[in-house]
Amino acid sequence: MCKVAYYICLMQLTEKVKIHPTEEQVEVLWTISNLCRLVYNFALTERKEAWRTEQKSIKYEEQQNKLPEMKEQFSQYKMVYSKVLQGVLKKLDGSYKSYFALRCR
Predict the structure, then answer these.
(1) Residue 36 domain boundaries
(2) Which of 76, 91, 96, 104 has the fewest other C-beta atoms within 10 Å?
(3) Residues of the chain whose pLDDT is less than 50?
(4) How many Cβ atoms sit within 10 Å of the Cβ of residue 93?
(5) What would the pLDDT profile of 66-94 be if each residue is shown by its tens digit?
């Protein structure tokens, strides 16, 4: 009896598209970019300070759970979708995990 294996090759195709935003759209994109940068830097500072003062490690979930409170306190963050801010925190968490995995080798 002959067994034949079938392999399915999945290719992910991408297409680069050049966008031509209006001045207003450019300003919104810069604003969102700056707000994301601030969230990243604040979250990084929070992690560093928690470790320096209490020898405590802060996890992604803890910081993510603070996002709704932050959006209420600072109204400019309401213009940024929650998933975008969560992605920023996930990027920070991934960078932290990668750094300490390499450092502990």
Answers:
(1) 23-103
(2) 104
(3) none
(4) 18
(5) 999 999 999 999 999 999 999 999 999 99
13 assigned to some structural domain: no
Q: In sequence order, what E strands does 12-83 have?
A: none
Q: How many domains are contained in the chain?
A: 1
Residue 8 lies in a domain: no
Structure tokens at 74: 């600072």
- Greatest distance between any 2 Cα atoms in the chain: 70
Return the DSSP state at 66: T
Which residue reads 């604003």 in tokens? 31
Q: What is the pTM of this model?
A: 0.80
**Tokens 């067994």 belong to which residue?**
3
- Examine residue 34 and state whether it is found in any structural domain, yes or no: yes
Q: Are 91 and 85 in contact (CB under 8 A)?
A: no
